[in-house]
What does this fold into?
Amino acid sequence: MSERVYIFDTTLRDGEQSPGCSMDTPEKLMMAHKLVELGVDILEAGFPIASEGDFEAVDAVSREFPWAQVAGLARCCTLDVERCAKALARAKRPRIHTFIATSDIHLKYKLKKSRQQALDEAVAAVELARRYVDDVEFSAEDGARTDIDYLIEISRAVVAAGARTVNIPDTVGYSIPSEFGVLIGKVVEALGDTAVVSIHCHDDLGLAVANSIAAVQGGARQVECTINGIGERAGNASLEEVVMVLKTRADIFPYHTCIHTEHLYSASELLAHLITFGPQPNKAIVGRNAFAHEAGIHQDGYLKEKTTYEIIDPRSVGVPEGKLVLGKHSGRHALSQRCKDLGHDLSREELDALYNRFLAVADHRKKGLMDEEIIELLHGGRKPAEAEQAEEAAAD
Ligand code: MN
It folds into this structure.
C-alpha cells in the first residue's frame, strides 16, 4: 500500500529569504496561487516577526487562500509566537511553525544556552502556540548535527506539549543519505504515531534531494522543499525533483504525493519570472535542457521509441514535448525528421547533401541550428562557406 508524503513548500519563506529572491506581497500572492494549483499540502508564507512585509504576506496568503494550510515561522519565544498567531488569524487552517537550535555548536556559540534551557523554551513555545492553533510544528534547527539522545528527548517533549509535526532539518546541508536516513529512522521509531516526522534539507553538498528521499525511506512523511530548489546558500531540496523521484520510481517506493505534476514547469517558470534567476539549463525536471537531445545515437533511439532516452514523459511535468536539438552531434535521422515536420520529405540523396551542408555550419556552433536556418540550407540558398562568413560577420 502506498503511503502519503506531505509536501511542505517553503519557497515563500526559506526561498524568499535568500539573495536575489525577494518578493513583495503581490508577487508572493501570484506564487501562492500557483503553489495552491500545484497542490502543495502546506504553504509556508513567511516569518512574521522578521519584517512588516513578511507579516503582511502571511496575512494576505491566509485571506486569499482560505482552503490552504498556511504556515508561519516563529522562534521559540513569546513575541515571535504571538506575532505569528496574529498574522495567521484569518487563516482557516493555520499552522504555527516554531523552531530552536538544538546542536551543541549552535547552543554554545549562537544561543549561549544549555540543552535543558532550549528544551524548556521549546516546550513553552509549543504550549503557547497551541493556545492559538491546533496545528503546531516544531523544528530542531541544525537537527542533523544534534546529539541523537537529546534530539529524541526534545522531540518527545514537544509532542507531549502538543506539537503534531516534528521537523528535523539538515540546516547546513552536512549530512549524507545513509546517515540521515538512519537518524530519521530513530526519531520515527521514538515518536511512533504520536507525530508526523518531517525533514528540511539544504543542498550545500548537492545532497538535499537524496537526503530527503533517504529520510522518507526512514519514515519521514513530510518533506520541506522549494520550487527550483531556491533557499539559503546552495538552496533547499527542490520540490520538483523530490516529487518526480517518488513518482518515477513508484516501482520501488510505496509512497506518493498529491502534487499535480503537470503544473511543475509553469511553477518553475513563474518563480524565475518573479525573482532574479531561473534554474540552470541542465537542472533536472525543469531546466531548459532537461528534455533536449542532441547526440545522434540518442536522437535515433528517441525517434524510434521515446522511452529509450526519456524516463519521464515531459508532458507529465507540463513541458509540451521533448526536443531534438540539431547540432554537430546530431545524425541524419533527426535532421530528416525535422525536415518532415517542417513539410519537406527528402530523398536519400537530398538528405545526404543537406546533411553535409548542415554539418559544415553546425561544426562551428556552440548552440544548435534554428528551424529557419535548416530551411535556408535545404533550399541551398547558402553554401557552407557563405554561411560561415555570415556567421563571422554576425559575431563581429
Ligand atoms: Mn532552511
Remarks:
- The pocket of manganese (II) ion is lined by residues 14, 171, 200, 202, 231-232 (CB under 6 Å).
